[in-house]
Amino acid sequence: MRKIILYIALLLIPVTLFTQIPELSSDFKIARLKYGGGGDWYNDPQEEVNLLKFIGQNTLIRVNPVYEFVEITDDKFFTYPFIFITGHGNITFTDLEVKRLRTYLENGGFIYADDDYGMDKAFRREIKKVFPEQDLVEIPYSYGLYNCHYEFPNGPPKIHAHDEKPAQGFGLFHNGRLVLYYTFESNPSDGWNDPEVHGNTPEKHEEAIRFGTNIVVWALTH
Questions:
Q1: Which residues of the chain are under the pLDDT cut of 50?
Q2: Hey, which end of the chain has fewer CB within 10 Å, N or C?
Q3: Which domains does the chain have, with CATH numbers?
Q4: What is the pTM of this model?
């Protein structure tokens, strides 16, 4: 736990002039969450690799562009400052996992969850166990995450059609800090993949990967 608190503390640098942020002392990695319930937590492992490479090329964040996954009960879970959750199906958290997730988020950790189409109901149900006293709230377009590095004045980009509903971004907060960000009807993480994998245009790929960069920048600086 001390490692993640220290890592986040070192990264609490004002984001308004991000190009002036000094290089980080250790390489940043994203951990994919391996959850129970049968959902395909493991799909498209190239997504994080591509995002990290882009971040390394377009910011001063030093990255380690590898695919890694972690379970909530692993000892190393608390060493990752940024956890990524995605999938199409069911998610379940045990009582122990709920407790550890809350401890992680209350002590400097950050989770980004992206509905890959079909995990919304299960994700909302399970995350409610972690913070039963609050609901996911839609993040206003004026929120800093949407303009901290690239400009997204209309909120999350609409990368995949899904049910043809508007893209939305939701959050959970602890002591005023955004600790969990969730995209619905948007699916930017699929856009991080090589464009030909899901038939994304180069423009959609660029839009998605820039948006992913904003999420990482915001998480590491707030």
A1: 1-25
A2: N
A3: 2-221 (3.40.50.12140)
A4: 0.88
